[in-house]
Amino acid sequence: MVYSKIALEFIENYPHANIISNTRIDKLQNFFKKHNYKSWKSKPIKIKETACTSYPSVNMNAELVSNLSQIARLVNEYQKVIDIIKYKIIFLAKKSKCFEVINSIYGIGEFTTSIIIAELGDINRFNNIKELTAYCVLDPSIKQSGKSIDIHGPISKSGNKYIRKILCIACSNIITIIGRTKQENDIEIYYRKKRNEGKASIIACTTKLLRKILALCKQLDN
Fold first, then answer.
1. Which of 29, 132, 136, 165 has the smallest set of CB atoms within 10 Å of its CB?
2. Alpha-carbon span 194 to 15, nearest angstrom
3. What is the rounded distance in angstroms from the CA atom of residue 98 to the CA atom of residue 39?
4. 94 Cβ neighbours under 8 A, 6+ residues apart
5. Greatest CA separation found in the chain?
């Protein structure tokens, strides 16, 4: 991942192919070893081989190269600030009684749980799933033409669009993780079912996930 700590620090220190090709393999290996990179011996060899056979469009002393190094350093610094903010958000979200039950859903991490809690607020203010799906912009809009009423129109645009996006990303993550681990999961099973039916599977899964979250949180009051 280009925004990972190791990637950003590598770009900062080696922003040009010629710089890499002029660096000893053992020095490159020490860089990756210091960052506890699993393939710290073999990866630098591949990187140097690629650098030696590349044809850069600018000289390694060009201002663009210097700018790239500085940008990588700045992004890395900003990432540290983002990590601190994420930690604070999670710390505050853990005070909610719903944190543990939402976080217990397979594939939903602490930060996603925290954002869901932040956007939903007190979930118990919703009396039923219909009210909650409307708030999360997941209810179908109603189309009316003369005497004809279509209750299966496109998704409504009124409501909190941010929580809808968060839930969609959460469902995508769950499906991706399950696809790698080959485990049984109700969200992933439902996704495949809806996909085979030719329906909007991610949106359907998002509604199912929302039902699960509401049910788990309501149980805390029983």
1. 165
2. 46
3. 40
4. 114
5. 78
Which residues, in sequence order, are CB contacts of 118 under 8 Å at separation 6+? 89, 93
Contact between 58 and 65 (Cβ < 8 Å) = yes
Residue 133: CB partners within 8 Å, gap ≥ 6? 139, 207, 210
Give this prediction's pTM: 0.73
Q: Which residue spans within 52-165 are E strands per DSSP? A: 143-145, 148-150
Please state, in angstroms and rounded to a whole number, the distance separating the CA atoms of residues 56 and 54: 6
Spacing of C-alpha 217 from chain mean position: 23
CA distance 140 to 126: 18
Whole-angstrom distance, CA of residue 218 vs CA of residue 128:
10
